[in-house]
Design a protein that fits this description.
The protein is α+β, with helices and mostly antiparallel strands. Among the domains are: 66 residues; 27 residues, no CATH class; 109 residues, no CATH class. The protein is built from 16 helices and 22 strands. The longest helix has 33 residues. It is elongated. The two termini are 29 Å apart. Keywords: Membrane, Transmembrane, Transmembrane helix.
């Protein structure tokens, strides 16, 4: 059995074939199968482990060198759009060009982010081909029902909160820094319906002095809402945070129109009102959003923001509406109140900013955070992203066109003025859509920093002309550390590729050199010479040579090589007989090799074999041949 195992080990090329042959050997020793399998068991275990190791190595090596579409952004331009502190005071052409570039690019960016949100953040949008631009196709947020965050006096039902959780600058936004240099940040948006009718004096006649200022004719009716005093310079009605004029309400041609009042924590310059106590917070930015709904519906809409329960029937001969019954908005304006909160943390989240409004966290990182230069520029970029995704900016640029309720409209030009019925939670769907657009805008902002999009602003003026490049070496280095996806490029691990190549070549070299190295050592030291002899003689070609020599075919050379050869080149012989019956002889090997097989060769072969067996039994045989003598005989 030892020699059978040696033969199998010498001539097996793969683990499955070795396992199969070992099982055959164990099964073939009838009467001693237990002992046979016991001797085969270590080899079987080693073969299984070796095969599993090769399989695992193949999996890991393929992962190490698998190509990817994740690439590093390379661009000639990098930085932010040039900004102006007061976009309402355009005094010359240079300021106009700057404001023009800023606002056009802002609106374009929000529109593209909204389109990406609809394609990729929708329930089944993740498989869209348009979702392969950013490092992650989507960023997640968690929506939960919460009590109204404002005073119960102003609330009109529970609210919802959408929490992004901590988004990582490296894994979520593609800023390729060391893990310990990353910055994490989160945004929480909480909204609830407001009882706006409690804070209005109703429809009033517009005073003549006010009519001249706002440009409406005398006798115009108007309605003001007192959510707080206006702090806008020159506001003709400072006691009101919002105003609605009857002519605008009844004759407007847009299905939905927004009105807004906002108050930023620690930044009155950018705010437009001081909230009443019911809306005040010391840790949030506040946005009150009014909706003017001019649509009619077949059935009442009970959603608190799109509320339309003022239903009437068409009278005979009336052609103003194509439907017999229509329901219009219950109130002239319906309101949502929202608050926004932010927080930034270092990689281990042991150092965090306050959980508060955006301007409660300065754009320059707090010195108490002890940030290194890389962390500082990552924080500044992250803060700039959060600044750009404030809900006010999104709604100001694309709020009306990004309403999910627009999907229910009958038309956008025929002036039907009809919408399909809206669900009772439509306002929640709108807020969720705003958060999805916010997340998509964050993804776009990171990419736009490293590769600002180019846009023709008219007269051959490129938007890249108004890009402000980074001002510090660390910020400039960040330009080359933004990752994205590109179908036009592939990336792979150079280190992984060469490690796999090097290890593969090393294993091949060891496999080829090991037998010759061991043979050289055995010949020089004389240790294990009989093992070397059996190793040589148990190879398939050497066994064939010995079978040929047993039939008188020879002489041979290269008996200690991998491939033995006949001394007489071109000698023809046969190792098979005319049939499987009887015995074969040396003479027959030469005879049949020379003249070919005939029908009566089997009987002749039996007779010759019997004669040779008798002669062999009578001949003297050597006694006690040592391994060294066998090697010398083999070498001769």
């Amino acid at each position: 059995m030892y020699h059978q195992l040696q033969f199998v080990l010498r001539n097996t090329e793969s683990e499955p074939s070795l396992i199969r042959e070992l099982i055959k050997i164990g099964h073939g020793h009838k009467g001693a199968r237990f002992k046979a399998y016991r001797r085969c068991l270590p080899l079987l275990a080693f073969a299984c482990l070796h095969g599993l190791a090769i399989f695992a190595a193949g999996i890991f090596s393929s992962k190490a060198i698998t190509s990817s579409d994740v690439v590093m952004i390379v661009s000639k331009s990098c930085g932010y759009m040039e900004e102006r502190t007061n976009i309402f005071n355009i005094s010359d052409d240079a300021i106009f060009e700057t404001v023009n570039a800023l606002l056009v690019m802002a609106r374009t960016g929000y529109r593209k982010s909204a389109a990406y949100s609809r394609a990729c953040y929708a329930q089944y949008g993740g498989n869209s081909t348009a979702c392969g631009t950013y490092l992650r196709s989507t960023l997640s947020s968690i929506m939960s029902t919460v009590p109204c965050p404002f005073d119960q006096k102003i609330c009109e039902g529970p609210g919802i909160a959408l929490d992004t959780g901590f988004l990582r600058s490296d894994l979520d936004l593609g800023i390729n820094t060391r893990p310990e240099d990353r910055i994490s940040a989160k945004k929480v948006l909480t909204c609830a319906p407001l009882a706006g009718e409690k804070y209005t004096d109703g429809w009033l006649l517009l005073p003549a002095e006010l009519a001249d200022i706002v440009g409406w004719p005398p006798g115009t009716m108007w309605k003001g809402y007192k959510f707080g005093d206006s702090i806008l310079e020159g506001d003709p009605a400072p006691d009101y945070s919002m105003q609605l004029y009857e002519n605008f309400y009844k004759n407007g041609d847009m299905p939905y129109t927004f009105m807004a009042a906002w108050a930023y924590l620690n930044n009155n310059t950018e705010s437009n009102f001081n909230p009443i106590p019911e809306l005040q917070f010391k840790d949030s930015d506040i946005l009150v959003l009014g909706l003017v709904n001019r649509m009619s519906y077949r059935n009442p809409v009970r959603d608190p923001w799109f509320n339309a329960q003022n239903c009437t029937n068409r009278t005979e001969g009336q052609l103003s509406s194509p439907v017999q019954r229509k329901c219009s908005s219950t109130n002239a304006v319906s309101f949502l109140g929202c608050k926004e909160q932010y927080q930034f943390c270092t990689a281990d989240e042991t150092q965090c900013s306050p959980y508060t409004g955006l301007y409660g966290i300065t754009a320059e990182p707090d010195l108490s955070l002890n940030l290194n230069p890389t962390q500082k520029v990552v924080f500044q970029l992250f803060w700039k992203m959060m600044w750009g995704v404030q809900l006010l900016y999104q709604l100001g640029f694309i709020g009306r066109e990004n309403l999910a309720a627009n999907e229910y409209l009958w038309d956008n030009g025929f002036q039907f003025g009809i919408s399909a019925e809206l669900p009772d939670n439509q306002w929640q769907m709108e807020v969720a859509n705003w958060m999805n657009t916010t997340l998509a805008t964050m993804q776009r902002t990171a990419l736009a920093y490293a590769r600002p999009p180019e846009f023709d602003l008219g007269s051959g003026i490129s938007s890249l002309k108004h890009i402000i490049p980074p001002q510090t070496p660390e910020a400039e280095l960040l330009c080359h550390k933004i990752k994205a996806r590109s179908k036009a490029h592939i990336s792979f691990s150079v280190l992984g590729f060469f490690l796999n190549l090097g290890l593969g070549l090393l294993i091949i070299t060891i496999n080829l050199a090991l037998p010759k190295t061991v043979a050289f050592i055995q010949k020089r030291t004389g240790v294990g010479i009989h093992k070397r002899l059996e190793w040589i003689e148990s190879s398939g070609l050497q066994l064939q040579r010995m079978a040929a020599e047993g039939r008188g075919v020879g002489p041979w050379e290269g008996r200690d090589k991998d491939v033995p050869r006949l001394v007489e080149y071109g000698h023809v012989f046969s190792l098979t007989g005319s049939s499987l019956k009887g015995r074969w002889s040396r003479a027959e090997s030469y005879g049949l090799g020379a003249r070919g097989l005939k029908e009566d060769d089997g009987e002749e072969a039996d007779e010759v074999e019997r004669m040779e067996m008798l002669a062999w039994r009578k001949s003297p045989r050597p006694q006690n041949v040592s391994s060294d003598d066998r090697v010398r005989l083999l070498d001769r």
